[in-house]
Automatic annotation (TrEMBL):
It comes from Bacteroides cellulosilyticus. Residues 315-667 form the Glycosyl hydrolase family 95 catalytic domain. Residues 669-735 form the Alpha fucosidase A-like C-terminal domain. Coiled coil: none annotated. It holds the Pfam family Glyco_hyd_65N_2. PANTHER family: ALPHA-L-FUCOSIDASE 2 (PTHR31084:SF0). This is Uncharacterized protein. Residues 38-168 form the Glycosyl hydrolase family 95 N-terminal domain. One of its GO terms (molecular function) is alpha-L-fucosidase activity. InterPro entries: 6-hairpin_glycosidase_sf, 6hp_glycosidase-like_sf, AFCA-like_C, GH95_cat, GH95_N_dom. GO terms for biological process: carbohydrate metabolic process.
Length: 755
């Protein structure tokens, strides 16, 4: 191609891209309702990683439920100080006595009686709005993270949680008369108006925590509320408002804590005394942050339902995971606003929930937000090592599968709350953060030191079998057989084996990258001492000679395939057949005991085998059957149309973020080290595009797909290094060395460098 023709081609493609981006920028993504939601788990969500809001209507009042990510009851679990508290004790009871009753008494029972440790709510700001009349429109624009409510009388309310500090803001305009404001505190003392419920694992009233009600102080146009929690933890809310013009009411509030890892040195009341930003000033700063966030990556799909849901999920990701804040727990910054502790205590479930919540961050190019997870894992490392010494009686690092803000064990079903390889799956996130960022400093200072301790733990906790292969004394596969005796396996499960084999593989690769050849050789020799994955005619099994025989929500036995990529269809026909048999078998057993995240995890797997139609089908089922109108994942089938036998509605977020990850897997994959664009596009899609998705190696990739064909690919190399890509125009894997900042354009007729 001559220079003139290439320039014309490039200019044309550039202008098409500009027009396309402009069209996308005009597309509304978010939520639109004709009425204000009247159920807390259907509310409009706002958040900035450390504080959150749920906007809904309760008893004729507009309610801004308040949350603070680090507001936890962190009381210790006394039972875990028992001399019997050990892995060996569990092994003895399961293997020798074949009886779980003593294990349940030690680890499980208290979690059904005690409602703490737990995440706890902050309270709510309420405005009486009955006199405003009928609502015309409720709208959340995810690109600005602003909720706007319009009434037919002309009144308008706008709300946002500041993206840059720990404040929230509201403004009402065109008010027919001024609104009053109340700060509602949680009811920690029973005044006789509430009905005390019998203890149940998922319906705990706040009154059972044993707190005294907090202190509320109101002066003119300000309110300060202070609440003491357990131990040294407390919370403070400061709210102030004014009327800067006729028919206008605006205000702001701040939420702070004391006694946690994330607490401030200045408390809310003192902060708000000096806080002088008006609504508009704060709004400009807020929207600037969100503009930068959305510039990190964008997608365009011919399916507006899937596209809007992806933007909603990535909005929630940006709202729930921020630097210097806790990572995403079960409900993140949207704790239940129903007078109870949240479902499953709002804890950190590390047998799936935390992990799935961070899947989309890497390829969506939101590394600062995904780094929040590894920052927390690094922060809890000491507590994890202490847990490993106390319960497993060895050196190294495992992490409680059901954990508090500080990474300490809460308890629950023993096969999962004290799962023996949890840290292996968590190690995968250090690996991904390193591989996508290509950051050697992070590898040296955090990733390898963390993963190395996990590998050391596996070496110390394992034993040799009769064939001189390593095994675990007892193994599990979340959440197979629930909390029964046969939930513990004497043969190492594929789930545990995947965590172990991945950890040794990653540790060796990391050691090689750091020039630690002796370490790398040791980890590879350890890897060789473990067996291969168990399989039969159905595909991957739960454990040797133990196939999956019933419908199940958790796809733990296929962890080696997804997300780890230890098994991949690129490895040959035999492995491809194994993977496809495994997926087919899960589908064949039916969806009776699936829940929402099963559909989105399965969609990720289907995208990995390039079955875009199946992935899209399951993602649509997830949206229509398992999501609240505000997009929250409610676990059960809300349509009651047979998508599962579960029809309950506990809100958790992991299914949402696995949805976003599946869309990204459909658009681009790089887990094998080779970039593939549009690998799992549904048959009916004739056009799609994405901008600045991130591939392993620190490559930013943009691509367009029109008339059923790839049109162009642009790749920017952040750090330099070797680029490997499947060129869709030649169907050949092409490899080349790149320099930092280099931009490469691939079109049907050329590969062109751009300065």
């Amino acid at each position: 191609m001559n220079t003139r023709n290439f320039f014309i081609l490039f200019l044309g493609l550039y202008m098409l891209n500009i027009i396309h981006l402009q069209a996308k920028n005009q597309t509304f993504h978010g939520l639109q309702f004709s009425t204000i939601p009247t159920i807390w788990d259907e509310a409009i969500p706002l958040g900035n990683g450390i504080i959150g809001n749920l906007i809904w209507e309760k008893d004729g009042n507009l309610r801004l439920a308040l949350d603070r990510a680090d507001l936890w009851d962190l009381r210790p679990v006394k039972e875990f100080g028992s001399p019997s508290y050990s892995y060996q004790f569990v092994c003895n009871e399961v293997i020798r006595n074949k009886d779980l009753s003593k294990v349940r008494a030690l680890i499980d029972d208290r979690s059904r009686k005690d409602c703490a440790p737990t995440k706890i709510p902050v309270g709510a700001i309420e405005f009486p709005i009955s006199k405003l009349g009928k609502v015309k429109n409720v709208r959340l624009d995810v690109h600005t993270a602003v909720c706007t409510i319009t009434w037919e009388c002309g009144a308008i309310g706008k709300f946002f949680t500041s993206a840059i500090d720990k404040t929230g803001h509201f403004r009402f305009e065109n008010l027919p008369e001024m609104l009053s404001i109340e700060l509602q505190a949680p009811r920690f003392e029973d005044d006789g108006s509430s009905i005390q419920r019998v203890s149940a694992p998922r319906t705990h009233l706040l009154t059972r925590l044993g707190y005294k009600n907090g202190k509320m102080t109101q002066r003119n146009n300000s309110i300060v509320y202070r609440q003491k929690a357990y131990g040294k933890v407390s919370c403070e809310v400061a709210l102030k408002w004014n009327s800067p013009a006729p028919q206008v009411l605006e205000g702001s509030y701040c939420i702070t804590t004391q006694g946690t890892w994330y607490s401030e040195t200045i408390q809310a009341a003192d902060f708000m005394k000096e806080y002088a930003k008006n609504f508009q000033t704060a709004l400009v700063e807020h929207t600037n942050w969100w503009n930068t966030y959305w510039e990190k990556s964008q997608i365009h799909l011919p399916d507006p339902v899937l596209e809007n849901q992806w933007y909603l999920e990535m909005y929630k990701f940006g709202s729930a995971s921020r630097k210097n804040a806790p990572p995403i727990c079960l409900q993140a910054v949207w704790t239940a606003d129903n007078g109870q502790t949240p479902p499953w205590r709002g804890d950190f479930h590390n047998d799936l929930n935390t992990q799935l919540s961070y899947w989309p961050g890497y390829s969506a190019n939101h590394l600062e937000e995904s780094r929040v997870f590894t920052d927390w894992l690094w922060k809890i490392k000491d507590n994890g090592e202490d847990f490993t010494r106390r319960f497993f009686k060895v050196e190294g690092l495992n992490v409680p599968c059901i954990a508090t803000l500080e990474g300490k064990a809460i308890g629950g079903w023993s096969p999962y709350s004290h799962q023996p390889t949890t840290s292996g799956w968590l190690a995968h996130h250090f690996y991904q953060q390193w591989k996508y960022e290509a950051d050697t400093k992070f590898l040296e200072s955090q990733a390898y030191p963390w993963v190395k301790e996990v590998a050391r733990y596996f070496e110390n906790v394992s034993v040799k079998d009769a064939k001189n292969k390593r095994k675990l004394p007892l193994s599990t596969s979340p959440e197979i057989n629930d909390n029964e005796l046969d939930a513990w396996f004497q043969k190492t499960t594929n789930y545990d084996l995947a965590n172990i084999r991945f950890t040794y593989t990653a540790a060796a690769e990391m050691a090689d990258a750091l020039g630690l050849k002796k370490d790398a050789a040791h980890w590879r020799s350890q890897l060789e001492e473990w067996p291969d994955f168990a399989s039969d005619s159905t595909g991957l099994t739960i454990a040797p000679d133990y196939p999956l025989t019933v419908s199940h929500r958790h796809l733990s036995h296929m962890l080696a395939f997804h997300p780890f990529g230890l098994l991949d269809i690129s490895q040959g026909k035999e492995v491809e057949s194994l993977i496809k048999r495994s997926i087919h078998h899960v589908e064949e057993l039916g969806n009776e005991f699936w829940i929402g995240y099963t559909y989105t995890w399965l969609a990720n797997m289907q995208a990995r085998i390039f079955d875009g139609d199946a992935a899209a089908r399951n993602l649509h089922i997830f949206i229509k059957a398992f999501c609240s109108p505000n997009s929250f994942h409610l676990n059960g089938d809300q349509l009651k149309k047979g998508y599962t036998s579960f029809t309950y509605r506990p809100f958790t977020l992991e299914g949402n973020f696995a949805f976003a990850s599946a869309i990204q897997e459909m658009l681009m994959q790089s887990h094998t080290g080779i970039i593939r664009v549009f690998p799992a596009i549904p048959e009916g899609w004739k056009e799609a595009s994405f901008d600045k998705m991130r591939a392993i190696g620190g490559f930013l990739v943009s691509a367009s797909y029109q008339n059923g064909k790839v049109q162009s690919i642009t790749i920017q190399s952040e750090k330099g290094g070797i680029l490997k890509i499947l060129n869709p125009f030649t169907n050949q894997i092409e490899k080349r060395e790149t320099t930092p900042g280099e931009i490469i354009k691939i079109t049907p007729n050329t590969i062109q460098d751009r300065p």
